[in-house]
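I hope you will forgive my troubling you with a question about protein structure. The record follows directly beneath this note:
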Amino acid sequence: MPLEMNENIGIAFGEPIEGADPGVEIEFGMAYDQLSKNLDFRKGLPFVFNAKRHTSGYTAWDPKFASLFDPKLRAESMEDLRLHWHQLAGVHAIVRMIFTPEPEPSHCTGVLLADEVGLGKTFQACTTIGFLGELAVRQLKKLTLPPIIGK
């Protein structure tokens, strides 16, 4: 049966809430810079992330390619690493939903990232982990917490 004839294709996970996908209805109206500021991301990324990536996909952790990441040699082979708006909004929504002002035993602390292939769910998960790691360090060192947590 062709895909366009299959009744199950195209059924939304949840009905839009004021035009937004379920779970990001608050982030839907926020600008990239506002989302980034709430998470306290510099240049739209957690502190622990590199700001650049190699266009070939090589990483600095592979000894064969580490020299490609030498700042003196970086040029056209490097590009800015940046979350797309929908990825940043997703990370913001994850953090917003898993933390509460007061402990609540009945509060669900998990989320489901559900989207089409290639839209950055893994990158969102890694960014959330980076955020949580940075948050732990800030708490240990008694540093200022990101606005989304500080509330």
User: Anything to note?
Assistant: The longest strand covers residues 52-54. Strands lie at 52-54, 78-80. The mean pLDDT is 78.
